[in-house]
Design brief:
Blueprint lengths: L1 H18 L1 E3 L2 H11 L1 H22 L4 E10 L5 E5 L9 E5 L4 E14 L1 H68 L5 H36 L6 E3 L23 H21 L5 E14 L13 E13 L7 H67 L5 H35 L10
Parallel strand pairs: 1-6
Antiparallel strand pairs: 2-5, 3-4, 5-7, 7-8
Helix pairs in contact: 2-4, 3-4, 4-5, 4-6, 4-8, 6-7, 7-8
Length: about 450
Amino acid sequence: MKNKLILTFLLAVGFLQAQETKVLTLKDAITFALENKADAKKAKLDVENSAYQIQEVRSRALPQISANGSLNVNPILQLNALPGDFFGAPGTTILAPLGQKWNSVAGVTLNQAIYDQSVFIGLKAAKSTREFYQINAQLTEEQVVEKVANAYYQVYVTRQNLNVLDNNLKNTTKVKDIIKGQFENGLAKKIDLDRTLVRISNINTQRQQTLNAVQLQENALKFLMGMPLETKISIPETEFEVTATALSAQMPDATKRTEYLLLKKNEQLLEYQKKSVQAAYYPTLSLTGSYNYIGQGPEMPWFKKPADGVYWSDFAAIGLNLNVPIFTGFGTRAKVRQAENKLQSIKVDLEETKLALDFEYENAKTQIDNSIISINNQKENAKLAQEVLTNTNNNYIQGLASLTDLLDAENEWVVAQNNYTTALLDYKLAEIQLIKSKGELKTLINK
């Protein structure tokens, strides 16, 4: 009974912990994503795998040693025509079998490349491949940071819109209560009460839609982070910092961006690919050596001795293999030209990428400027809408304004608040693009 109580208690604690809400800052979201998102994990595995690729290429420059063994039985031995002189019968030809019915060979073979241009180039290419995957891992992490940051601010702003609707619902409910009291005392019309009820119903519908949008965006954020969808999260309500200090009069060097560096490393790999194809023009030289032990006799030679008619002997060989290509039907030349064509193509990509990165920076900077202007305008507009709503509400209570005026003022206040939060979102998204265009996305982890 005691064990059951302990087990029940532990399960209850586990359930409560699972239901705890995780407070999630932008830094927390990005850090979690870099540690758990599948894309980031796979990029790290690619870097690890590149080390194995280097080992594989390096193995081609090391000695290749192998052991071999065989057991053969010859039911019918080949007859060879030999001069009868060997057998004391000159002038005749005798068919004599050569070899034994059974033979078994065991040995060791060694091959060592002495000169092979493709091996040397492959070693350089393998090291560059590792660097390529390291840059690609960095680019993958930057893409994860960008996606998580965008999704994070989407959730934040939609939650702000939800807060606006909650305040609007609260204010409209107060107005409804006032009108209801007036209606019960014969001081208000039923149509006014009905209009406020319709207004409350519309706000509730809009609130539910916004609540659903928050849930969907939170799920998208969790997916981008690699976080279990059942985890409850809470984004702290901190004031957005809106400043133009991030702008720079000088355009950042696009050739230092990760996207450009990845293409440059790919260009280097294509250079090595071209040289590897050209290596087919060069001769190759290798050393070979073998040592074998052979047993022959009229019966299976294993574990047998000369007394059984089985004889064992060893033999060895050492040699050099030289291969000089002379004519390959222009196949090598065609491969070289294909490699050169790929090089020319990636050079075009490099030019296009640099132009695109510069374009990205200019667009982000322009969007930042426009967003700051929009934020200032919408902030003043929201402040003015709040004042109008307060004054209209006071006038309505005093009978100096109609219900239509009050509902219009409430609607304009909601629109102004949503426009302000939308302007904030546009600014934060533009800020992310600006940080990205400067190659500083990782700095978001420090925020």
